[in-house]
Design goal:
18 helices; 82% helix
């Protein structure tokens, strides 16, 4: 939606749009790890309160930028909005983790929240071009977003008071399988525990690095791709791409309930990866109307499986719920770093191909293949190692073998095995830092190239 509108009204090519999107991703990679640590310390409700307020300020600046047609002003608003988004992305799931344990309502809650979010996103994406055309100015789309942000702030404030009331009235919850106390905020910063994340956690991070990045890049370009492949107007293309991205909203809550009761997280990851790969292959080697339509349909189902199983698996693999915010922040940092690199590379390829999608979809195929291979490898390894294999456990199995989980946790922490586990976790954390630095280098490198090639940016 936004890409098509800005391209039409401000003559922005794919590379400049990727830089605009990358501005938000850059801020997230720079601050998200700190946001995760702070959220674990102060609690999710408090982080949501100030995060939504900052996000609204950014939304107002972006709407103003669309009114005056200023690309630079848009960058400023996007950066400020990113500050708020950084806080809220981690906070909402941190709250859920303090209420529900794995296989005890966490996945179901995620499914419901993400399903409702998909409905809202569908309405927004499908109606954006309609609003722009009927109101005569695409800036109205962003002013409508400002109104919704103000309403969100009111609801968040009510929620904050509600959580404070619940804290005083009710005692803390515990994981029924392991007895672990579920906390929304900690008494101090848990840096050591953040650096002791188990190896199955990093398997999930590897999966999301490919799957989520593929989904985001494809989503950002779906409307324009539909416009080209189906030869339809922007409004019609917006409806097609919205259906492809959000048609699976009804699957998400059902998947959450399925995972809570029957587990099989690794199986869902495999199905998700294979579905993404088939969809991207159709987009690459079936550029006809029917081939693209089939690609969109398969993608709608496959993409719907990803967010719930990824977030729930991250929570399930972690030994310490009190640092879930930090663990989820690592996931966001990896995703946004990949988005910067992949988004800019794909945009450059598309610009050199006269804005065609014939070649750039090869990047999508590569990412989807990566997610499929990681999913299959995790499924196979899970048969031999209980730390990863327990992602397949049903609710009954997890409660029955709760003591086994605690025993594995002690094994992870103690002796020579504990030293090796900690060393591996620190090395993987170092890889994340290097990935972030690589994304920054890509972002600023392309900015410099744009400045050299174009003396002014509109």
């Amino acid at each position: 939606m936004a890409k098509t509108l800005w391209a039409q009204d401000l003559d922005i090519n794919n590379t400049k749009y990727a830089l605009l999107s990358g501005s938000e991703d850059f801020m997230k990679t720079a601050l998200i790890l700190f946001s995760g640590i702070i959220t674990d310390r102060i609690g999710g409700a408090g982080a949501m309160l100030y995060g939504n307020a900052i996000y609204s300020v950014g939304a107002i600046l972006i709407a103003a930028a669309t009114t005056v047609r200023s690309y630079k002003f848009m960058i400023l608003g996007t950066v400020i909005q990113a500050f708020g988004d950084i806080a809220t992305q981690v906070a909402q799931y941190k709250v859920f983790s303090s209420w529900f344990a794995p296989s005890n309502g966490f996945a179901s809650t995620l499914g419901f929240e993400l399903g409702v979010g998909k409905i809202g996103s569908f309405v927004g994406k499908a109606s954006a071009n309609i609003i722009a055309e009927n109101m005569g100015d695409f800036s109205w789309v962003y002013w409508m977003a400002v109104v919704m942000n103000v309403f969100t702030n009111v609801v968040t404030l009510i929620f904050w008071f509600f959580t404070r009331w619940c804290e005083k009235r009710y005692s803390a919850k515990h994981d029924p399988a392991t007895g672990e106390k579920l906390t929304e905020k900690n008494d101090h910063f848990e840096i050591r525990k953040m650096l002791q994340l188990p190896w199955p956690f990093w398997c999930i991070i590897a999966f999301t690095a490919f799957q989520t990045s593929c989904a985001i890049v494809f989503t950002n370009n779906a409307t324009e791709m539909a416009e080209q492949r189906f030869d339809v107007s922007a409004v019609t293309a917006g409806w097609y791409s919205a259906m492809a991205q959000y048609m699976g909203f009804f699957l998400v809550p059902c998947l959450g309930v399925f995972i809570d009761i029957l587990g099989n997280r690794l199986s869902v990851m495999v199905i998700c990866g294979i579905g993404m790969f088939i969809a991207m292959c159709l987009a690459k080697w079936g550029p006809t109307v029917s081939g693209t339509a089939a690609s969109f349909g398969i993608y709608a189902v496959a993409e719907s499986l990803g967010p719930v199983v990824i977030i729930d698996s991250i929570r399930t693999t972690m030994w310490y719920q009190e640092v879930f915010g930090s663990g989820y922040a690592i996931k966001i940092a990896v995703n946004n770093s990949m988005n910067i690199i992949v988004g800019i590379v794909a945009a450059v390829i598309q610009d050199k191909d006269d804005n065609s999608y014939n070649n750039v979809v090869g990047v999508y195929v590569f990412l989807a293949a990566g997610s499929m291979l990681v999913g299959i490898a995790s499924f196979v390894v899970g048969y031999f190692f209980i730390d990863l294999g327990r992602l397949q456990w049903t609710k009954k199995h997890r409660i029955r073998y709760g003591e086994l989980i605690n025993a594995q946790k002690e094994k992870f922490e103690e002796g020579d095995a504990g030293k090796k586990n900690r060393a591996f976790s620190v090395s993987m954390f170092t890889v994340v830092i290097l990935l972030i630095l690589g994304a920054w280098a890509t972002y600023f490198g392309v900015w410099q190239l744009e400045i050299i090639m174009h003396s002014t940016i509109p």
